[in-house]
Amino acid sequence: MGSDAGSAGPVEVEPMPGYLELITRASTVIWGAWRDCSSCGLELSKRTFLDNAYITWTEIALFAFCAFLWTMVRRGLTESLFKPLAQSSRLLPKDAAKMPESAWKLVFYTMSWSYSTYLLFFTSYPFFHDPPSVFHNWKSGMTVPTDISLAYLIQGSFYGHSIYATVNMDAWRKDSAVMVVHHIITLALISFSYAFRYHNVGILVLFLHDINDIQLEFTKLNVYLKSRGGGYHLFNDVLSNMGSVSFSISWFWFRLYWFPLKVLYATCVSSIQAVPNIPFYFFFNALLFALLLMNIYWFLFIVIFVVKVLKVKEVNDVREYEDEDGSKAAAVLLREPRAENNDDDAGHHNSVQGKHVQNGVTKEKYL
Fold first, then answer.
1. Over pLDDT 70: what percentage of the chain?
2. How far is 227 from 334, CA to CA, in rounded Å?
3. CB of 292 within 8 A of CB of 260?
């Protein structure tokens, strides 16, 4: 399904539905499919899996090798580049410990999203502008184009690595358990969509999700950098604020608007219209709806984050656990005055709380 994917199917592009149309039509189609599936059960699922799943041991071995390779590459970059960069930037200890994780994710997601963007907007694939076309000319066991196979290998192996990394390498956060579940569901979607040749819709899902990770890690890096050397750096503060605003807006637009109206409508409604009795219809849609629920769950964190920014004018990751040392360091950084002469700190504290004093120049910092 390379360049011929764009020429096949109807010429007229179906307009994107609204939320109400998605809910009404999807629920009608899903209920109808469930009612008509009189033979649904474990035996049918087993037979359908054996008849339609196409994946080789070579592909599985290549996935495992690349997942291991991502882990090694991350460790190498962390020790040779990210940690020395954190030290040379004179980050606060708590920020220096988290900076390599954000730097690594920023590098990967920038690369992966750029490739997905290339596939959707600089080739003949029409999937973004015409989501129902992801199922045009679908056939069980059809050949996966090389460029899409490469995207699947990159993303699938990375999420295999990420399950391990979230538990053993990343900083543990309030949503880390949910993150592990997210990675497992994503890996299941990637693996099964490849095996059942739903790779076209998979590229669209990856494109709609990776951009937010770029903005998140970019914002976090600037949060760390704005306090480097024990000072206050306005440029990084502005970048972190800009990143947080774009992250909040794009999260809703890409994951809560385009994702359900483009992807879920195509998988719930258009799939059965194009391929009656499409394999594992309920299974794949259940995974996609679980992904949507997690997007809504994380959007609640974003709402809390926005409220916090509006109240205290400070960008922080609300998912982080507030350890005692980190809280004290943050309090010193954000609320106590900085002056070259610290002897008069005690008498001067109450009058300048919320301001940064550097080289005799007072800078207002609203809290």
1. 81
2. 9
3. yes
pTM of the model: 0.79
Report the distance separating Cα 187 and Cα 338, nearest Å. Answer: 48
Whole-number pLDDT of residue 217: 95
Dihedral (CA of 318, 208, 224, 167) sign: positive
- How far apart CA 223 and CA 232 sit, in angstroms, is 11
Task: Give start and end residues of each alpha helix (H) in the chain.
Answer: 4-7, 19-36, 42-52, 57-77, 83-88, 93-121, 146-168, 176-195, 199-225, 234-250, 265, 271-274, 281-312, 324-335, 345-352
Can you tell me the distance from the alpha carbon of 284 to that of 197, in angstroms, rounded to the nearest whole number? 12
* Residue range 187-214, pLDDT digits in tens: 999 999 999 999 999 999 999 999 999 9
Cα 292 to Cα 260: distance, rounded to the nearest angstrom? 8
Instruction: Give yes or no for a contact between 40 and 279, defined as CB atoms under 8 angstroms apart.
Output: no
What residue type is 112 in one-letter code? S
Count, residues in the chain = 367
Query: CA distances (Å), 312 to each of 198, 228, 279, 366, in order?
Result: 46, 20, 51, 7
Structure tokens at 277: 């009795």
Dist CA 28 CA 168 (whole Å):
44
Structure confidence at residue 324 (pLDDT): 39
Sign of CA dihedral 327, 182, 30, 190: positive
Q: How far is CA 159 from CA 181, 200, 251, 268, in A?
A: 11, 19, 20, 25
